[in-house]
Write a structure and sequence with these properties.
Helix content is 48%, strand content 13%. The protein has helices spanning 6-13, 17-26, 45-59, 66-77, 81-89, 116-132; strands at 3-5, 42-44, 94-99, 102-106, 114-115.
């Protein structure tokens, strides 16, 4: 399972460092790995999709609370990429709701719904672009992703 650093999540999910840190400290987001002193937070690709979807929900007319964001992100963390890709093949791509820890997708678009497939493809595209970037010789890549 590929894990993304906080800096990578910031770039692909479209949030700020302060907001991501705040969500982690408040328990809205629970990193998949790398917690603790001296370790950087790591997030799974599907957690990152959940973060992007919940940010889009929060910014929409529909809106959502921090608790609902936490539930959405946690629900996405339980889905495998294979399950998500299978849902896309079955033409279900729009986020409906989180229910009992499961992500429910549907095929019909309605006002205020979030296109999960679009978010997933954008994140995958950005991950591929970042993986082609040569690492900084000093070992620090924060703020340098995508620069050559």
């Amino acid at each position: 399972m590929r894990e993304l650093s906080s800096a990578e999540v910031l770039e692909v999910a479209g949030t700020t460092e302060m907001q991501l840190r705040d969500w982690c400290q408040k328990g809205t987001i629970k990193p998949a790995g790398g917690r603790g002193r001296g370790n950087h937070r790591k997030f799974s690709v599907l957690q990152t999709v959940g973060i992007a979807v919940s940010i889009e929900l929060r910014n929409s007319d529909r809106g959502c609370s921090a608790d609902y964001m936490r539930r959405v992100i946690s629900a996405f963390a339980t889905v495998t990429e294979e399950e998500l890709l299978q849902a896309f093949e079955n033409r279900t791509r729009y986020f409906e709701l989180e229910h009992n820890g499961r992500v429910l997708l549907h095929s019909e678009k309605y006002p205020g719904c979030v296109d999960v497939q679009k978010n997933y493809k954008q994140i995958e595209k950005q991950i591929k672009r970042m993986s082609k970037t040569e690492p900084n010789p000093t070992g620090r890549n924060r703020g340098l992703v995508g620069n050559k």
